[in-house]
Amino acid sequence: MFKCSFCGKEFENALDRANCEIECDKEIKVKAERQKQEKLRKQQQERKDEVTKAYNEYIETCNKAKEKYLAIRSKYDNDYNNGYYFDTWDLNTDCFGRVIADIVSKL
Ligand SMILES: [Zn+2]
Question: Which chain residues have CB less than 5 Å from ligand 1, an ion?
């Protein structure tokens, strides 16, 4: 009996065993390559998720800061009826505005 050293299948002669070993070796290499590619794909997805999470936190932080600013600004304007001092603070130059500008510039 001649036994394939990879899969353990038994053959009547050495040539058939050798052919099986060649095929088994090919399968093992293909499987290893597939696993390697899958691992790389997973790693990339994890990094992509990390970027997306950081971006969402960035937007959330901008939104919270903007809400805080608008609430304080609105209260000031109501209390003093005089917002001209802040008129140069165009909302398009705040961080949220820049996020939108960045997105638009990449379209
Ligand atoms: Zn085999």
Answer: 4, 6-7, 20, 24
How confident is the model over 68-97, as a mean pLDDT?
70
Contacts of 5 (CB under 8 A, 6+ apart): 21
Q: Which tokens is 89 given?
A: 């603070």
> For residue 36, what pLDDT is reported?
98
Q: What is the mean pLDDT of the chain?
A: 85
What DSSP character marks residue 10?
E
Give 10-44 pLDDT, tens digit per residue: 999 999 999 999 999 999 999 999 999 999 999 99
Measured in Å, residue 16 CA sits from the centre of ligand 1 at 10
Nearest in space to 66 (alpha carbons), one of 44, 87, 91, 100: 91
Query: What is the C-alpha to C-alpha distance for residues 67 and 96, in angstroms, rounded to an integer?
Result: 11
Is 93 exposed, middle or buried, given 0-12, 13-18 or 19+ CB atoms closer than 10 A? exposed
